[in-house]
Structure formats: C-alpha cells, structure tokens
Amino acid sequence: MTANKEPRVEIEELIGEIQTGIAKAQEQLSAEQIPLLKSVTLDLVAEARMRIDGGFEFIVVTLGGYWERASSQEIEVTLKPPKPPKLLRKRPRPRPGVADQLANAIVAAGRGVQKAGSNTNVPLVATALKVVLTFVVRAGISAGLKFELQLVTAKLAGQLEKSATHQVTVLFEDP
Q1: Whole-angstrom Cα distance, residue 163 to residue 136?
Q2: What is residue 1's predicted lDDT score, i.e. its pLDDT?
Q3: Per DSSP, which regions of 21-141 are E strands?
Q4: Structural domain of residue 25, as residue ranges?
Q5: CA-CA distance, 99 to 17, in Å (whole number)?
Q6: Contact indicator for 169, 131 with CB cutoff of 8 Å
Q7: What is the pLDDT of residue 36?
C-alpha cells in the first residue's frame, strides 16, 4: 500500500462494480425481452504504483486527478456476461451506485434500439448491436459512495482536456 491519502479507486473495485452492473443489466434485459449481452470489453486507464513490498497496484485514473498519457497504463478486460437466472443475490443499497448507473445505461441503449425496430413506417432491422459508453470515474464521493461513473456528455466534455476517459464496449446477442 502506498502512503498517498488522495481519494483513489483500485482497479479491482471498479471491475467488481462493473461486473455487478453487467449482471444487473442482463437481468433487466431478460425481463424486458431485449437481446442479452454477448460480451463486454473494458478499456481502463490506470496508474501503476509501487507498493512497499516491491509489488505493484493499479489505481484507476479519476476525474480531476493529475494525469499524463505517457505515465499511464491501459488495461483491456473482456468479460463474458452471466446468463439469467445465475445472477445476483439481492443486496439492499442505500442509493444507486456504480453498478446501477452502468446497468441503466446499457438497458436504455438496448431498449432504444428495440423501440426503433417497432416503427411501423420504416422498421429498423438490426443485425448487430454494439454500444460504446465513454465515462470518467469520480473519486471521493460523499453519501457513502467511494466513487461513481459519469458518462461523458457535452456538458462534461469541457472538463476533460486533462482527464483520462475509460470505455465499456457492450456487444448484444443477435437482435
């Protein structure tokens, strides 16, 4: 562990929340009869820090933190989402967290494409669906959350000049 006291998000914490979000999205997609997720690829930007024992830990680059591309590491992880009903045990949460934010974004994309397919004038015939969500991680959040995801929007774009962005690429099963 380093002696640095700034708010930080370790890579295993972020990946764990993303895995939970993917499982929640699968559950909701199944309930709404929207095609399920086939695979999810994470592209994360992290800083490698040496621990006292000589090992390394990877800390996710967060919004507002000092960041330079030359001193960062890129980590790509491909996940195979679980099939319902092998999903989550329900855990009460005081308020929506990272997993909920991600699940809501994934389901909204799938729902939108499904609705476009029901257009009676010119129905969309989707043969594949890939959604790329670009986000930043905000650390040191109050109200019990250690960190949150913020999807990159036009409003946020002006603050990103010196910030690292991360991506979640979601491939849906054949629509």
Answers
A1: 8
A2: 40
A3: 37-50, 56-60, 73-79, 130-139
A4: 9-172
A5: 5
A6: yes
A7: 93
